[in-house]
Design goal:
33% of the residues lie in helices and 27% in strands. The chain is α+β, with helices and mostly antiparallel strands. The chain has a nine-stranded mixed sheet, sandwiched between helices. A hairpin with a 2-residue loop joins strand 1 and strand 2. Helix 5 crosses helix 6, helix 8 packs antiparallel against helix 10 and helix 10 runs antiparallel to helix 12. The longest helix has 35 residues. The protein starts with a strand and ends with a strand. The model has no long low-confidence stretch (mean pLDDT 94).
Length: 498
């Protein structure tokens, strides 16, 4: 049996690419990492494993606590972490969801080929940069009222359809059809709403981006069902709930600390502060989080509207003639009440075991992780039910991205989850010390014909290709474990940084 030691934590390989932390008396459930040895070398450089152990110590957690192959240190809960809590006897934790609630990614298809855009990359990237607000602060595609914000929080992409920013098929190709019905806008503070009111339809900052890509490789026949083919031009939109989601997380972390101080102090990390399932505070947070989820879906849909109009202007036609249809929109940084088949044990519930399986409602927390439901699952849209849910995993702006499909073992291995991206290797501060934005921009253009535009050079430096892990390794582990299976690879053509 292979072992791996990292900063006082020992991992044992229980099967290929599945590693388990050595247990101790404080851990309530096993803690597992999905990774190969190359990725483990990256994970050991921060506090990812210590944070995963802390998750495994939380009361009410359902076995096992998991870290996906793109895992890295986060706020209390590792990015790439997945943890499920019993919906009756467990907890819900804002820190295990994250500050950018429903940060997610969507792919918009076109009928253009790479040859159609070659020679027009700079024109296209300039037009997109002008059309989609980026960076910190306000400004969005939609300049509406607080009434519009309330409607968006409540109805998600349904509101976009009503306002002419989306078509019905957009809604049908979003996770949860672009709306969380448990949303409660009244559970969101005025401060959070004020932060979101003028950010409807904006990328924001950090690792958010809008990227034009070309399909370079097709691995699976599911590509036909997804409407993807080699040399096709597609567009990725990656952003979340902006300042509104950040404020929701901050507000509820403080409330939980105030209302449950003894419980918070008893946790191995107070950043994992959680409210008991069924409590008024847990219900309030869940309603506020679901409303922020709706806001993020609206945000990406409004950007999609601007992208469609921009492509139509640049190529002098209607966006429908360009067949700019939504493939899918997947959410990261989210907790959902889902029904899962588990084994009942003396200590609770587990994905592992013998005997009869029972179905339980769980709060599945995915922080920097993607839902990956397999073929046949009732929550996969009808268009993809025979092949599985599309999964979109972006790499860095100098590397490829991937579309996967939900793997047949995702429900029994990972509560129907897989990775969400390449995963960071270094902090933004370190990135700015090691890279110059102008140099990165020039290298990408000269060596790879990738056109990058951002509000500042620092933004480009923070997101330099060397800042991220090898996305090929990440998706390779997902595919090998059959939690998310390879369908196509894409490569950047033009990139707008938040």
């Amino acid at each position: 049996m292979n072992t791996f030691d990292a900063d006082g934590v020992t991992l044992r390989e229980v099967e290929d690419d599945v590693w388990e932390l050595d247990g101790d008396d404080e851990m309530r459930v096993p803690a597992r990492v999905f990774a190969n040895e190359t990725l483990l070398e990256d994970i050991q450089d921060d506090k990812t494993l210590q944070q995963l152990r802390s998750v495994a110590c939380m009361p009410g957690v359902v076995a096992p606590a998991l870290c996906m192959p793109d895992g890295h240190q986060g706020y209390g809960f590792p990015v790439g972490g997945v943890a499920a809590f019993d919906a009756e006897d467990g907890y819900i934790s804002p820190g295990a969801v994250g500050f950018d609630i429903n940060c997610g990614v969507r792919m918009v298809k076109t009928n253009l080929t790479y040859e159609d855009v070659r020679g027009r990359e700079e024109e296209l990237v300039d037009a997109l940069f002008d059309a989609v607000p980026t960076g910190l602060g306000g400004g969005g595609v939609h300049d509406g009222s607080h009434g519009d914000l309330e409607a968006a929080l409540d109805r998600g992409v349904d509101w976009c359809v009503e306002e002419g920013y989306a078509v019905r098929e957009d809604r049908l190709h979003c996770e949860d059809e672009g709306r969380r019905p448990d949303a409660d806008p009244s559970a969101i503070s005025k401060k959070a709403k004020d932060r979101g009111a003028n950010q409807m339809g904006s990328l924001g900052s950090g690792n958010h981006f809008l990227e034009v890509q070309r399909v370079t490789d097709v691995f699976d026949d599911a590509a036909d069902e997804f409407g993807l083919s080699e040399d096709q031009i597609v567009v990725l939109v990656h952003c979340g709930s902006r300042g509104l989601g950040h404020q929701v997380c901050s507000d509820y972390l403080r409330r939980i600390e105030q209302e449950y101080p003894d419980f918070t102090e008893s946790l191995p990390d107070k950043d994992l502060a959680a409210a008991p399932a069924g409590s008024a505070l847990a219900d309030d947070y869940y309603g506020a989080m679901c409303a922020a989820i709706n806001f993020a879906w609206v945000n990406r849909q409004l950007i999609t509207h601007a992208v469609r109009e921009t492509f139509a202007d640049v190529f002098d036609t209607d966006w429908r003639a360009l067949e700019m249809d939504l493939l899918y929109d997947v959410a990261h940084n989210i907790a959902k009440r889902e029904a899962h088949d588990v084994y009942e044990t003396e200590d609770g519930y587990s994905l592992d075991g013998d005997g009869e399986r029972v179905q339980r409602d769980l709060y599945v927390h995915r922080k920097g992780a993607t839902r990956a439901f397999p073929a046949g699952h009732p929550e996969v849209p009808n268009a993809y039910r025979d092949v599985g849910q599309p999964i979109i995993i972006p790499g860095s702006m100098g590397a490829g991205s991937y579309v996967l499909k939900g793997g047949s073992k995702s429900l029994t291995r990972s509560f129907g989850s897989t990775a969400h991206g390449a995963g960071r290797l270094m902090s933004r501060t370190q990135a700015k010390r090691e890279y110059g934005g102008g140099e990165v921009q020039a290298d990408l253009r000269e060596q790879n014909e990738i056109y990058v535009k951002a509000a500042s050079g620092d933004t480009i430096a923070e997101e330099a290709p060397g800042v991220y892990k090898d996305v090929d390794e990440v998706v390779g582990v997902s595919d090998a474990l059959d939690i998310g299976d390879l369908v196509v690879r894409t490569f950047p053509v033009a990139n707008i940084k938040g």
